[in-house]
Structure formats: structure tokens, C-alpha cells
Amino acid sequence: MSDTIEEMPVLYSYWRSSCSWRVRIALNLKEIPYDIKAVSLIKGGGEQHCNEYREVNPMEQVPSLVIDGHTLIESLSIMNYLEETRPQRPLMPQDCYKRAKVREICEIISSAIQPLQNLIVLIYVGEEKKKEWAQHWIMRGFRAVEKLLSSCAGKYCVGDEITLADCCLVPQVFNARRFHVDLRPFPIILRIDRELENLPAFRAAHPSAQPDCPPEVAK
Ligand SMILES: N[C@@H](CCC(=O)N[C@@H](CS)C(=O)NCC(=O)O)C(=O)O
């Protein structure tokens, strides 16, 4: 019997961060228990910028995951590590074409939509323009995602199994609602979001269920 005590993974997370949310969903789907270390992106100018956290994540962003004695950053990279090291409840299809579709959707959301609503970007854009800016980029990206889904979606984003694309989609739809994006032009996105939102792994990862969610927002 090994006398090594496995350390519980620690996720550096902020309740409303869509990138942290993606990883929370993947951890929950794979039934990997984890502790949360909350990093407030707003308190005192943002705890992500303090020296201690910069040592964890030199990009000064969440999420970061400490697991297997390693510190990992970047949500897609973290989810891929989980997929490669914890094959239970796979989140990537077997089929190469379907895998490519999953990656396409993840890339659009994580490269062409989410970064443009990041706090540092919105501060730069300014209070007056930020809603219009966010709506523009979310709609542009969602038009592409909706088009892809029209040929690859089944019950979920790619076929009938939940994949990493679904982990990315749900938090992005939440963000779209935060910025009052008109989602009516995206019926497939809306249908898939409805399919997923009440599944236990998704509910437990929701911002309102997080330990650092302000009580006035938590359900
Ligand atoms: N590419 C990174 C992006 C991470 C990211 O943008 N995190 C946001 C929250 S969702 C953040 O920490 N923002 C801090 C800031 O803007 O100062 C990932 O996928 O992990």
C-alpha cells in the first residue's frame, strides 16, 4: 500500500469568472474532488495582481489548478490535462472529426469571445462603451458557433455526449446575458444551454453556488 497521501487539487477561482467556471464543470463531470481558493478580481484592485498570486499564475488571471504536485494555468490546457490524466467520463469524442469540432468551438469562445470581455479590456474600453463592445464581440463569435453547431450538434455541442465545448459554452451564454445580448438569433446555442444548465455538474459549478459568491447574489 502506498503511504503517499494524495493532495486534494486546489482551484484558484473567482465565482463569476467564466474561465474558472469551465474548469469547475470539467472537474465536477469527472467527479474529481477539489478545494477552492477564491481570488477576488475586484477587491483592492484585484487579488490576481498581488505578488503571491503572480507566482502561481504569471498572467495574473484565474483559473489556476494545483494538481498532482503541479501548478497549471490556462483553462483549456487544464481541461486537457484532466482529460489526459483522468480518462473517466471522457470529455473529448473518440472520432477525430468530432474532436476537431470540439476544439473549434472551444477556440472561438476562448480566443475570439471571452478575452474581449476581460476586466482589463473592459476597463481600457471604458464604462460608456463597454456594453456595446461586449455585445459586438459576443454576437460575432456566437454567429460562428451557431453555424458550426448547425452541422455538429446533437443533444449537446458535438453529438450526444457532453464535451469540453459544452464546458466552454454555458459560461459564455451566462456572460452574454450579463451584457444583455439578444440571444434570439442563436436557437441552437439556447437549446443546448437549456439541456445543460440543470445537470448537477453544471449547477454545482454555477457562480451562484460558489463559496465566494456574494450572499445577495447567491440563490
Ligand atoms: N486564457 C485564459 C484566460 C483567463 C482569464 O481571462 N481569466 C479572467 C477571468 S474569466 C481573469 O482572471 N481576468 C482578470 C483580469 O482581467 O484582470 C484561460 O482560459 O484560463
UniProtKB/TrEMBL annotation:
One term under GO cellular component: mitochondrion
Cofactor: glutathione
Pfam families, per the entry: GST_C, GST_N_3
Keyword Isomerase: yes
InterPro entries tied to this protein: Glutathione-S-Trfase_C-like, Glutathione-S-Trfase_C_sf, Glutathione_S-Trfase, Glutathione_S-Trfase_N, GST_C, GST_Zeta, GST_Zeta_C, GST_Zeta_N
Pathway: Amino-acid degradation; L-phenylalanine degradation; acetoacetate and fumarate from L-phenylalanine: step 5/6
Domain (GST N-terminal) ranges: 7-90
Reactions listed under catalytic activity: RX + glutathione = an S-substituted glutathione + a halide anion + H(+); 4-maleylacetoacetate = 4-fumarylacetoacetate
Compartment annotation: Cytoplasm
Isomerase listed as a keyword: yes
Residue stretches making up the GST C-terminal domain: 95-215
Keywords: Cytoplasm, Isomerase, Phenylalanine catabolism, Transferase, Tyrosine catabolism
GO biological process, one term: glutathione metabolic process
Entry superkingdom: Eukaryota
SUPFAM superfamilies: GST C-terminal domain-like, Thioredoxin-like
Molecular-function GO terms, alphabetical: glutathione transferase activity; maleylacetoacetate isomerase activity
Matching PANTHER family: MALEYLACETOACETATE ISOMERASE
Assigned protein family: Belongs to the GST superfamily. Zeta family.
This protein's name: Jg23168 protein
Biological source species: Pararge aegeria aegeria
